[in-house]
Specification:
Rossmann fold, alpha/beta, 9-stranded mixed sheet, single chain, 4-stranded parallel sheet, Arc Repressor Mutant, subunit A, 15 strands
């Protein structure tokens, strides 16, 4: 295999661990706290998870642990979209298992959860693990978005763990994947299986977090990758002084990426979906907000700028949210009927009878290419694939119309030329930052300790992340503690509650205090590329979001 000089250098990086995990494994004990409750819908969640609900928080402490040296056989799954650091989670899990007992074995299920269902397991050994340490991507075993949800799939999963005699399965994924982990843990208990299920918090979107999960892995690296690109465009447009760059960033349900990138690069405009929803702003009002900045900058002779747009923006604008919800529900109710309609014109006619008149009028006003994107195939959860909706182009088109009207009224005298971008996949498989390399390795090692302690239905947790790694606090959080009920495929389903941008939180308040200045004055910052070698204040620095959240109160 041919490798780059950077990859070769990264192989030699030794991830840092919390102090408690640096002890000999026999000196790592698990301290259990009080029983927990779900964040919402407690009674309904308790009924669904009769055997695994209410488990206590787990914290690792120094102490004797005789069980930790037992021989274990564990399976691991990479689930959902890629995020930088996934390979280090597996490496941390592997190293923990081998330190506990050299005879312990780790199996990877190829292709995500379908690998568990279909028993596509590969034995992971030293040579294979060493080939992927500190690298980006999920290519060691691949990933997938299959959900374990039918009785047949659950039964097949149980059959797989029986055939392999697995003591545990570790699912590395986001909120939906770890909801699946909770359901699988409950199913195994109900079937009398001793196989444990542990999750690890992955998603570059940053929306899988709470008091005990301070950030999901990959967020740090992805935001730094996108911010480098945004900074490059800021430098370019400040040189050419003639383009407005409209940049859509990943983040379907939450605007954490857009907000973090704004804090790192100081664009002229950063739309925050949660604020738009809270204020009930219409699409026209959002356009007015963008145009106000363009007009004021033009008065200063600055016919250029940067606009950051969260991927899921359209789902937070009230009239668009209503439209998308009605489209999703209509397709869920009559899926086979809709699937048989191939032409766009016939699909539009079909919706004229299936959604409200007000929503249908909005659908008709959208440019045909954008309207088609609203009607594309749904994701595995029955939702519109917002990453395929070119929101950035929709906004540019509406801004151009608004600016034309303002020119006729002699209010705007500038020149407007826009370029659109979508930064998404570029950040999902980057070489993990030192922070993500350390954090992910610690999460994987913690998953091993949770397994060795005999726990199931837990999410690996590492906290106090703004401190040096040796001061981090490792443990586990019961998956049911993060649950609520949400509408999926036309019915209420238990899911881990997404963490949205808090408008009274430190990161948003810091942004809100300066954005009016950024809207008019060119204030771009240029973060540059991720640094892997050098002083800790350059190489190990966490996101601004994490810093500001730790300052709250």
């Amino acid at each position: 295999m041919v490798i780059s000089a950077l990859q070769k250098a990264r192989y030699g990086y030794k991830p840092k661990l919390p102090a408690c995990l640096c002890s000999p494994v026999c000196d790592i004990a698990v301290e259990l706290g009080a029983p927990t409750e779900a964040v919402a819908d407690q009674e309904e969640i308790r009924k669904i998870f009769k055997l695994s609900y209410g488990k206590p928080l787990a914290t690792f402490v120094n102490g004797k642990n005789e069980k930790i040296n037992r021989e274990l056989k564990v399976g691991v799954i990479l689930s959902g979209g890629q995020a930088p650091g996934g390979h280090n989670v597996i490496a941390g899990l592997y190293d923990g298992l081998k330190k506990g007992n050299p005879n312990s074995a780790l199996y990877g299920f190829r292709g995500g959860p379908s690998g568990l269902i279909e028993n596509k397991a590969v034995h992971l050994d030293d040579a294979l693990i060493d080939e992927y340490r500190n690298t980006g991507g999920f290519d060691i075993i691949g990933s997938g978005r299959t959900k374990v949800e039918t009785p047949e799939q659950f039964a097949a999963s149980l059959e797989t763990v029986k055939k392999l005699s697995l003591d545990a399965v570790v699912i590395i994924g986001g909120d939906d994947s770890n909801t699946n982990a909770a359901l699988l843990a409950e199913y195994f208990l109900d079937q009398g299986s001793a196989t444990q299920v542990i999750g690890c918090p992955k998603t570059i979107d940053g929306d899988l977090k709470n008091e005990y999960i301070e950030t999901s892995f990959g967020f740090d690296t992805a935001c730094k990758t996108y911010s480098e690109l945004i900074g490059n465009l800021g430098r370019d447009t400040n040189s050419a002084k003639k383009y407005w760059h409209f940049i859509k960033l990943m983040g379907r349900a939450a605007s954490h990426i857009a907000l973090e990138c704004a804090l790192q690069t100081q664009p002229n405009i950063c739309l925050i979906s949660e604020e738009i929803e809270a204020k009930g702003l219409s699409l026209d009002q959002v356009i007015d907000q963008i145009c106000a900045s363009i007009v004021r900058r033009a008065e200063n002779g600055d016919n250029f700028g940067i606009v950051l747009i969260p991927e899921g923006l359209v789902e937070f604008i009230p009239e668009m949210k209503k439209l998308i919800s009605e489209i999703n529900d209509a397709i869920a109710r009559r899926e086979s009927e809709f699937a048989g309609i191939s032409s766009f014109i016939d699909q539009m006619y079909w919706f004229s009878h299936c959604i409200s008149e007000s929503s249908y009028q909005i659908l008709q006003t959208l440019p045909p290419d954008i309207a088609r994107e609203f009607l594309m195939d749904r994701d595995p959860h029955g939702n519109v694939q917002v990453s395929r909706i070119e929101t950035e182009k929709l906004l540019v088109g509406m801004v151009e119309k608004k600016l034309y009207a303002l020119k006729q009224e002699k209010i705007y005298r500038g020149k407007f030329s826009a370029l659109t971008h979508f930064f998404g996949y570029e950040g999902r498989c980057a070489f993990p930052s030192n922070f993500d390399a350390d954090y992910c390795y610690s999460l994987g090692y913690s998953a091993f300790v949770l397994i060795a302690a005999g726990l199931t239905g837990y999410l690996s947790s590492v906290r106090n992340l703004t401190a040096p790694a040796n001061e981090w606090i490792a443990g586990g959080v019961p998956l049911t503690m993060m649950m609520n009920l949400e509408q999926r495929h036309g019915s209420k389903k238990p899911v881990i509650k997404k963490a949205l941008v808090e408008l009274d939180g430190g990161p948003f308040r810091a942004f809100d205090a300066v954005r009016d200045t950024w809207a008019v004055k060119t204030s771009f910052l240029f973060p540059g590329a991720i640094q892997y070698f050098g002083p800790p204040e350059v190489c190990d620095e966490p996101t601004k979001t994490l810093r500001l959240e730790h300052l709250r109160g």
